Every structure is written in C-alpha cells, then in structure tokens.
Amino acid sequence: MYRIAVIGDKDSVYGFAALGLDVVYVGENDDPHKAFKKLCESGYGIIYITEALAEILDEEIQKTNDNPIPAVILIPGISGNTGKGIANVKKAVEKAVGSDIIFND
Amino acid sequence: MATTQVNPTRMELTRLKKKLVTATRGHKLLKDKRDELMRRFLELVKENKELRMKVEQKISDANKNFVLASAAMSDEVISAALLAPKQEVYLDIGEKNVMSVDIPVYDIKTRTPDPNDIYSYGYAFTSSELDDAVKSLADILPDMLKLAEIEKSCLMMASEIEKTRRRVNALEHVMIPDTKEKIRYITMKLDENERSTQTRLMKVKDMMLKEAHGY
C-alpha cells in the first residue's frame, strides 16, 4: 500500500492536505534536496511537485524516471504555470521519436 | 570491413552463419517491438498532453480559489482547519506489461467512502470560500492520479523505445553487415585454398608422370 505526497511551497500545496495526501512544505530555509530525497526513500507511490521546486531538483527527478516507483509528477504552483510540466512530456517524445511530432502545432 | 582477424576455417564459418541467423531473427523481433512500442507510446502521449493541459488549467483555478479563501480568513484559521484531515488516500500499484515495459496501474483507495470527508473542519469558523477551494481541488484528484499513471508510463516507454532503437540500429548497421562480411571473407578464403590445392595436385601429377615415363 503506497501513499501520495505533495511537495512545494506552502501556499501552493496546503490545500492537498484536506484530500488526504501527505503534504511537505519546503520554505526558503529548508533544503529541498534533503526533503525530496527523504520522500523518495519513504515509499511514496506518487510524488506531486510544484514546477518551481522541480526546477531546482531537476537532476534528482531525472533519476527517478527509470524506476516504476515513485512517479514524480509536476504540477503548477500558486505563482503560475511555468510550462515545465508540458516540457517534460515534450522531452519524452523527443527521446522516443527523435524529434518532436506532437507539440509542434 | 573485416577489421578483426577471423580464422578461415569451416568451423568458424558454421559458427558465423549461425550467428547471422540469430542476429537477423533478433533484428526482426526488435524492430517489431520498436514499432509496436512506438504506436502505443504515441497514443499514450497524446492522451498525456490533453490530460496535462486540463489538469494544469484546473489546478490554476483551484489555486485561485485558495487565494480567495486565504483572503477571507487568517492563516492560523486555515492551518487549523486543515490540520487534521479526515480523508486519506492510498494507492495500490499494479503492473501491466506492455512490450516488456512494466507500466504502473494505480488502484485508488480512500479511507472513508464518503466524498464529504474532504472537509476536515466544522463550518462555524471557516468561510465558504475555503469549502469551494477544497471542493475544486477534490474534483481534480481523479484526473491528477490518471495523469500520474499515464505520464509515468510515457516516461518509462520513452526510455525503453530509446534502448530498443539503439539495439535495432546496432544490429542493422554493425552486427549484421560485419558478420556477412566475415562469412564472405571465409568463403572466399576457403575457395581459394581449394583452388590452390587443385593446382598443386595437377602440378605434382605432371611432375610424377614426367619422372615415370620421361615426357
């Protein structure tokens, strides 16, 4: 049985607590690398992460891509959509096909 | 292109021929795998794109609701209201094998079946904006989970496609031509050996006849 975590700045993610997801706040004084590593190791099935935070943790997120668990999924934070989430999908297409044939419209 | 030295023997020839058959067969199979993976991947990635746009849109809307809610109430009240959630979401992760890629299949379980259990507070001290915000977020959750499933599958399939493509290319452009070249080399060498034995025998015969009969 796995649980689901949401990690990000407080304003972006606190609402998810009401739904029964585990919420981890990363403020300015916290170390995001440490927090993310801890989440990966404590057996979460899905980790939702704000795009802003994913920017910092890019390397770590890439490492999780080959394992089935956890699934790290980017969501837009309160400061708006940076387009990084969709860029990740784009990158997967480029990796598989060789060139982007889905998003070039 | 026989860069590496091969022994021009019949044994080596048989070995190489077997290797060529295996390589050709493997190449065909891998090519089929790649094509099928690609087909599935493209289907999945289109779905992924649409779902992601939808979810991102909805999350932005929900975030707006939360901003409204926090404008109407103080931070302490909101924190207290959401401090002890009633609902919990669990996940059962199964696996589905698609062309040797184990893509995850999520089975969602909630602790209580009542959808109203997302409101972990009495309504006395909170504003209705918070209710709306929590509700809007709860409505997205199924889509978010679906997105997680699809996006993870896409990522895993992408790396598998990349790997398979490399294997196909390595077989097609290196391994198979190389082996063919080696087989050609050995066959020619063996033929050459045979011809040289033939001529030598003819020459020896001539010499022996000359010695025996004097012509």
TrEMBL record, chain B:
Coiled-coil features, chain-numbered ranges: 34-65
Keyword Oxidoreductase: no
UniProt xrefs under InterPro entries: V_ATPase_D
Record's keyword terms, sorted: ATP synthesis, Coiled coil, Hydrogen ion transport, Ion transport, Transport
Gene Ontology annotations of biological process type: proton motive force-driven plasma membrane ATP synthesis
GO molecular function terms listed in the Swiss-Prot or TrEMBL record: ATP binding; proton-transporting ATP synthase activity, rotational mechanism; proton-transporting ATPase activity, rotational mechanism
Family: Belongs to the V-ATPase D subunit family.
NCBIfam families: PRK00373.1-2, V_ATPase_subD
Function (record text): Produces ATP from ADP in the presence of a proton gradient across the membrane.
UniProt-recorded name of the protein: V-type ATP synthase subunit D
Organism annotation: Candidatus Limousia pullorum
Lineage of source species: Bacteria, Bacillati, Bacillota, Clostridia, Eubacteriales
